[in-house]
Design brief:
Alpha-Beta Plaits; globular
């Protein structure tokens, strides 16, 4: 399994609409792409009202390294451009790929 993490800073005034778009459109589109298994949307509660943005994290699980390569070469720009068109200047994003993920569960 491979983990692909997208860390976002979304402007306060856009945050509700942006999260709604993630929940109802964007994440489902990503999960429909080859190799994507699941996604976790992590929303931080609270935060200082003085801050200009609020953090959001999406943790995607992909089946293997080949799936990440396919996503990056064939789909990533198209998916990113949709967000940029809809929310231009309203967020910033950092992305990380972790090639080995070991899962543990409680007994």
């Amino acid at each position: 399994m491979v983990t692909y993490i997208v860390q976002l800073a979304v402007r306060w005034e856009t945050y509700p609409e942006y999260v709604d778009w993630l929940k109802n459109e964007h994440i489902a589109e990503v999960l429909a792409l080859p190799g994507f298994i699941k996604a976790e949307l992590c929303l931080r509660k609270g935060g200082a009202m003085e801050a200009s943005s609020k953090d959001v994290k999406i943790i995607y699980t992909l089946k293997d390294e080949e799936a990440v390569k396919t996503y990056m070469s064939e789909y990533a720009m198209q998916m990113r451009e949709k967000g940029l068109e809809k929310f231009s200047g309203q967020f910033s994003a950092q992305r990380e790929v972790w090639l080995e993920t070991i899962n543990f569960t409680s007994k």
